[in-house]
Amino acid sequence: MAATVPVATIREPTTLEAASMEQFLAGIGTRAFRFAELGLRQRDDALDAVQDAMTKMLAYRGRPPGEWTPLFWSILRSRIIDVQRRRVFRLRWLSPQSDANDNTIDWADAGPDPARKHDGREAYSRIAEALRALPGRQREAFTLRVLEELDVTATARAMGCSEGSVKTHLSRARAALQRQLEEFR
Length: 185
Hints:
mainly alpha; 7 helices
């Protein structure tokens, strides 16, 4: 014959127990808040921690009142530690970190502000229009000499003309661009 194990019955707390739990929480609330505020150093976090601990404590109202005090402080302490850990994780995530190559990640956007980006796009489109308006040989000379930074000899070879011709085309291209882009000076 198998031995029967008594099963703990779950019962609803009586009105007296519920009232005494409310009195217990009301009596310990101020001290708990001070304790949490010292541990967390922020009023809102301390209020949240105490509220969470009190809410969790309501599940233990069926326990004898002599166990409530150590149980509550244990719950509150655990809640404070949880908040501190989350804070450390959040701070670690937000602070500059090192990647696999041990280079610091820069979270700030070093690019120009939106107005400057817009002006840059406008200027680029105007320059592109002005370059398209140049005759082909002048555009080639300007692109190779100025944008690609080739010397006169290399540009002449690339264009299939003399060095003097490259200098003439470049001079004319610069003058035409200067007239067309006068407003950007």
